[in-house]
What we know:
Blueprint: H1 6-48, H2 52-55, E1 59-64, E2 67-72, H3 73-109, H4 124-134
Antiparallel strand pairs: 1-2
Helix pairs in contact: 1-3
Subcellular location: Cytoplasm
GO molecular function: unfolded protein binding
Pfam families: Prefoldin_2
Amino acid sequence: MEEVSTEALMNVVVDVEKLGDEIIADRYSIIDMDRIRNKNREALSAIRKPSELMKKEEHVWMNIGDLFIRTSKDQLGAILDEDQKYLDNEINKLRDNLKPKVAKMNTALGKPEVKGFDLQRLSKEEMDAVRQAMG
């Protein structure tokens, strides 16, 4: 049987731990960004379908950190839409980078490659084409 040096074994363990930490950090980042995205979606819904009280108001209050700003509904909607696009892009980047990290960690651990794990989601255009084909 082939002898594995302690140093080589430690290097593998350190690499696996680093990858594991990166994977966990990325997953927590995705969760945090998703929470923000959901709050933004709630705010967008509230200003686009206002209640009786909000119909009278042209301006709304917005909280950014410890700062309250009064702005128009249209401007707030534009800010939130831009923030949603940014969050969507960042979440997608993290998700796309997560798959190779998990595959690399599994390889380092000697686990077999997970079949179907590297599947890519359909784009909006592809989904539209599928819907048209389905009727």
